[in-house]
Amino acid sequence: MNKYLQVNTYLKAAFFVAATVVTSCASKKQAEHTVTLKTSTTAGGSSASATIGTGKKEGIKKFSDLVGKAKADSGLFATYKIDGKYYFEIPDSLIGREMLVVTRFVKTPAGLKSFGQQYGGEELNDQVWKWERHDKQIFVRVPSYSVRADSTSDMYQSVKNSNLDAVLASFDIKAYNKDTTGVLIDVTDLYNGDVAALGISDNIKKQYKISGLDNTRSFIDTIKSFPINIETRTLKTYRAGASPTDNSTAALTFELNTSMLLLPKTPMKPRLNDNRVGFFGQQQVDYGTDAQKAERTGYIHRWRLEPKDEAAYARGELVEPKKQIIYYIDPATPKKWVPYLIAGVNDWNKAFEAAGFKNAIVGKVAPTAKEDPEFSTEDARYSVLRYFASDVQNAYGPHISDPRSGEILESHVGWYHNVMSLLRNWFFIQTAAVNPNVRMAKFSDEQMGELIRFVSSHEIGHTLGLPHNFGSSYAYPVDSLRSKTFTDKHGTAPSIMDYARFNYIAQPGDGVTHLYPQIGEYDLWSVKWGYTYFTGNKSPKQEKQILDVWTMEKAGNPLYYYGRQGTSIDPRLQSEDLGDNAMKASRYGIANLKRILPNIEKWTFQTGEDYDDLETIYNEVIGQFNRYIGHVTMNIGGMNENFKTYDQQGPIYGFVNKNLQHDAVVFLNEQLFNTPAWLINRRELSKFDNGVTIGRIKALQVNAIANVLNASRLARMFDNETKSGASAYTVNNLLTDLRAGIFSKNAPDAFKRNLQRGYIENLKVLLNEDVSRSFPGVTSAQLANMGLTPINISLSDIRPMVRAELVKISAGLPKSGDAIIKAHYDDLRLRIKEALNPTRPIVNVPGSPQTGIYEDLNENGLEY
């Protein structure tokens, strides 16, 4: 349930760093400096802008005269508060050192709605700074790491010449310290100013019509220095034209915390990325390699784990790391959930054991103010699971890494209180047919706690560098998920990083009771691959040679397959699915939904409560059914993607088997295009439905048609026919099979009539509408990589095939029936005639397969 979508690596390459620096002229008596900056900075893609100071230039004072009796707060820099101003004493030894700067919310206004940046603890910006001295000034510069070359490379100087670090801010030196090994600067305006790197995001500014910072209602609360970091707490009030709750103040006030954390002097040795093993990572153009091109290299994101005892580690013994990964649980977390959240963290220890480490990770209760008065959940030295009082049904696991090496430095997991509602609804819908323990309006604390533990493990996995592995659940045969012995050992998928959810396949009588995903075979393998420590000071390339051997040993074994998120090509890589055959799995799932739906009212009964919960769960049934339809549809025109290197045989891309594609259409005809009357339970619908049942079913059916007839899908099918001939499932096969299901010989009911009209309208769009779309900066190959296979419809075989199909449908329509049936067939003929001989512009049809505009459905499958 990670809120942050992974950006396709091809798209990442389309963004570039741009920096503009403007400095003003200086007179003999007065100097103005205005620094304006736009820059892409770290892997988070943060932007920053700053305007620092206009005023009379003062001479450099004696340290004792300026500081007087002010007490130093010693740490990374000694800091001072003098007459309401804040000063940094920067030692020469830290000039040029890189520091990670992270700004987070501490407190936010009530009702703030900016997804991903609205609660205390959520990150606003991260950026790397370098403090640089030039004559009588100190500059803050923002390094870029998108281009690199090793310092020993012939290209090193050339890269430096075309990769100049942007200047964020400048400061006059106010004094030299007593032994002249450092300088004193005034940082008040930096932290109290409207600097994007230290303030709220542009999205929030636009959403609430913020015109600027009001300095009269803003201040620095505290600046505290620690051995490797400085923590700055500010209150900032912005002039705002809109407010989430109260426009009378014409302002929004935020409390913010900015951490400046010293990065390691020697970056961690990076580990080179491999597309066959899933890790978050970063890319850069490396001009220091011996490749005969500008080579793009990638490093994975991972924590720095080094054994305390290298000799014991080398002997194969489990060894504790020099520095343990620690996650603190937010003190604001309800006490009864804390043990389950901690268990979700600690569950990963068995994966780290596969990499040779014991006690590598631990969850802890955050210390109280009495136990540690300096502890802060915003402090960048600490990783924290933050608990948000929110109605958002989600949780997410981000991390912040060193852009020089990929070392993960800290993480703040976001946990929204209302994720429990999502868990309750899904666990009920997916398991109630076989699980009596959830047939109630409210789960026991033990049951909800186990669900929370599962989500905690999943989100912690993200913070360890692991992305979603949407290909994992395909490894387990469907029938194995009906086995108690198998599921007790393996859960629902080899990776908890899949969206495998809960076992909807198990049937009553199977005896299956372990219904959760768990940390599995793939997770142990990926942690071993990413975190194994190699002794002997091997280079990243030497380590890669060893890792390649490991990867080759696992190649072809579905338990260790990594399937990326971000493509709609491969039907194995789907969210919320289980098993190796979507049609078989979905039939089992539908059989269970048919058992659940008639019992919803009984199983969710609450004395004195209205029927809101009945409606919610009923709509969840419809939503789950719709997921099954989507899982099946992905097989049509699908391609399997298996990343390989030159030394591996076989294709990377291969079309889905013809019989599987045919089976998918048979399933749709059987389960959806043949009206799913089981969804219409009149007794339960009468408690909340106010006349939209036909619309519910129509939305399901028409959206499915639009998905099947998607132009990108058809493009792949034509490509398959060209390459594979008779072994391909062709567009003609598809249209023939759809016609057989949608235009069966029986007189159509109201639902089937809607379906037939929707089918004709979608064909009409394919035949007549100009559906060309542009994606500036994105190539055709990049679109295809995401599943948006490009096709020029007007020049393709789509229109001839559609025209022929419409003629066949028209010729086969009956000419008799009762009044409504006859009117329906007459209407279809007119629609087809208009499609073949248009006399008016074609407008976008709800459910258009080209525009991507389906009939609007809310998350539960309702049409509005």
TrEMBL record:
It comes from Mucilaginibacter litoreus. InterPro entries: DUF5117, DUF5118, EcxA_zinc-bd, MetalloPept_cat_dom_sf, Zn_MMP-like_bac. Gene3D superfamilies: Collagenase (Catalytic Domain) (3.40.390.10). Keywords: Hydrolase, Metalloprotease, Protease. It holds the Pfam family DUF5118. The lineage of its organism: Bacteria, Pseudomonadati, Bacteroidota, Sphingobacteriia, Sphingobacteriales. Residues 121-308 form the DUF5117 domain. Residues 442-746 form the EcxA zinc-binding domain. GO terms for molecular function: metallopeptidase activity. Residues 60-108 form the DUF5118 domain. This is Zinc-dependent metalloprotease.
